[in-house]
Write a structure and sequence with these properties.
- By secondary structure, the protein is α/β, with parallel strands linked by helices.
- Among the domains are: 148 residues, no CATH class; 95 residues, Tyrosyl-Transfer RNA Synthetase (Orthogonal Bundle).
- The chain contains 21 helices and eleven strands.
- The strands form two sheets. The chain has a seven-stranded mixed β-sheet, sandwiched between helices.
- The radius of gyration is 27 Å and the shape is globular.
- The chain starts with 34 loop residues before the first helix and ends in a 16-residue tail after the last helix.
């Protein structure tokens, strides 16, 4: 990744979080400090995985895509020419605008790199959560799909559907709903006694949407490109994908169970004792694992070692609390006494049929021990065990879902400053705007410039705070990093004045809208040939939010 490419985050490292944040899929689309999302919700910085992406999209290079959940699985599949998918949905409550184009582009980019691509119209959500009429939904859905096709989505290779017409999605949502409860809807979404039931049902439908690509063909890495406000849906879906699995696979050392933090400590004790070391090195947790062949290590031995061990301290916000885990791990080891301590992979029977559990036992190669509710395997790695569990599950009519991945892009600043809002026409540019209106909106936009031309030349502009520079970085420069570099450098060095910069951006916006709308017109025939109903005969008054 080119370190000289100007970024929408100013190229800064991860900042310290500033305040608590809340993510509302149906609220205002804004985030005060993106660093808060790493702390509050466990979203990972995209920089951590960017190096694994071959020829990354310009939104990745420029820091517009700032976060992810387990995108490394998708990047690995892309690099190895293995199956993967990309899906995102669009709630048809208004005209598609330049903010939506980010998601369109991300789906298309993954499709161009060999992924199975899915674009869905979240019409059930629009009706239940926003109270949209079906006539309005039909009109907006058509506009969204025309822009998606005009930007390059291959409808023959990909799939486009409406939630209300996809019975497979609705059936899957019903099954997933059996693993969800109202208390977590309260915690995740803030639902209460006034929330209509259809709104809750639409949430479960969206979890089914997210997993749908794995239902079509086979379980595979799947990325959901969204704004961070949609992360609650991703988190819930990742949980439900795990809950419906037949088997849970964990690492274990003895008859008792360990949580992740305790497991780190017991692994350190086992490695030290099995290797014959004293084990008083603070770096023990980071050492390579020893051969897991059977040893004479006992739980009591490990307890003695761990009692004298001081876990390394770290200032990282997401670091495990090993000091607290040490106490509970010691209790479990001491209770184990003379029981041998020996690494193994454990399969828990979570939802399996009796036939599937018996098939799992047969499928586990090597030494194993079978118990009433689980199987311990001593000759499999965790990855091998996951593959065995998934294959058995699929062979016995289970889903075998992998947890979906996600990438998150920054919200565009409104042209008038502050939030970009569909209810404030001057703050955004619709993909349906007349090109001359698009030109005028950019010419009237707020900038990051100084009060006078003299101050601009002396102090330079503030490109990192400028909605017009964002237009270049997010849209107008396309794949041309040199243009973004030039605009940024000339701005902050005082060589570029706002009037000329806005004129250039306005001209580019007019050209983009002219080209896009020509392609939309060409896409009309293609859309009409698709197997999707845009003249719904559904009836209803919709919900309220």
């Amino acid at each position: 990744m080119d370190e000289d490419t100007p970024r929408t985050d100013g190229g800064t490292e991860r900042a310290e979080p500033t305040e608590d944040v809340a993510l509302d899929p149906w609220g205002s689309a804004s985030v005060g400090d993106y660093a808060d999302l790493f702390e509050e919700f466990g979203i990972e910085a995209f920089d951590d995985v960017a190096g694994d992406v071959t020829d990354p999209h310009y939104l990745m290079r420029r820091g517009v895509i700032f976060g992810h959940r387990e995108y490394d699985a998708v990047a690995e599949a892309m690099a190895n020419d293995e199956p993967f998918a990309a899906l995102s949905g669009f709630m048809p409550t208004g005209d598609p605008h330049i903010g939506h184009k980010l998601v369109f582009d991300e789906i298309i980019w993954h499709q161009e790199r060999g992924g199975d691509a899915f674009g869905l119209i979240a019409d059930l959500e629009a009706h239940s959560a926003r109270g949209m009429s079906w006539d309005d939904i039909d009109e907006h859905a058509r506009n969204y799909l025309l822009s998606l096709l005009a930007l390059g989505f291959d409808a023959e290779e990909g799939e486009i559907y409406r939630q209300s017409d996809n019975r497979d999605v609705q059936d899957l949502g019903f099954e997933l709903g059996s693993k969800a409860n109202f208390s977590e809807f309260e915690a995740i979404y803030g639902f209460d006694g006034e929330t209509n039931i259809s709104h809750m049902q639409s949430v479960v439908t969206q979890t089914a949407d997210i997993l749908y690509p794995q239902l079509v063909d086979e379980p595979k890495p799947t990325v959901i490109p969204v704004g961070p406000d949609q992360d609650p849906h991703v988190r819930l879906t990742r949980d439900l994908a795990t809950r419906v699995r037949y088997f849970k696979v964990t690492e274990a050392f003895a008859s008792f169970e360990l949580d992740d933090d305790e497991r780190q400590l017991v692994r350190a004790a086992y490695d030290a004792l099995a290797a014959g070391g004293a084990g008083d090195d603070d770096d023990a947790i980071d050492d390579g694992e020893v051969d897991d062949a059977e040893t004479d290590v006992r739980c009591g031995d490990a307890a003695e070692w761990l009692a004298d061990y001081e876990p390394p301290e770290t200032d990282a916000d997401d670091a495990p609390d090993l000091a607290a885990a040490k106490s509970t791990a010691l209790d479990k080891l001491r209770a184990g006494g003379k029981e041998p301590l020996r690494p193994r992979v454990r399969f828990f029977d979570r939802n399996a049929t009796e036939e599937a559990f018996e098939a799992l036992i047969e499928a586990v190669d090597g030494e194993k021990r079978v118990f009433e509710g689980h199987v311990d395997a001593f000759d499999l790695t965790r990855g091998e065990a996951e593959s065995v569990a998934r294959e058995v599950e699929i062979d016995h009519d289970g889903f075998g879902f992998r947890q979906p991945s996600s990438i998150y892009h920054r919200f565009m600043t409104g042209l008038t400053g502050g939030k970009m809002s569909s209810s404030v026409p001057a703050s955004h540019i619709s993909l349906l705007d007349d090109p001359e209106d698009g030109y005028d909106k950019v010419r009237s936009a707020t900038t990051g410039g100084r009060d006078t031309a003299e101050e601009q030349r002396e102090l330079g502009g503030e490109a990192d705070e400028c909605p017009v520079y964002e237009l270049y970085a997010y849209l107008l420069a396309g794949d041309d990093d040199e243009l973004t570099k030039t605009v940024y450098s000339e701005c902050v060095n005082g060589e570029r004045l706002c009037g000329g910069c806005k004129e250039q951006a306005a001209e580019l916006m007019r050209e983009f809208l002219e080209d896009h709308q020509e392609k939309r017109a060409e896409a009309e025939e293609l859309l009409d040939d698709l197997d999707i109903d845009l003249d719904s005969d559904r009836r209803g008054t919709g919900g309220e939010h």
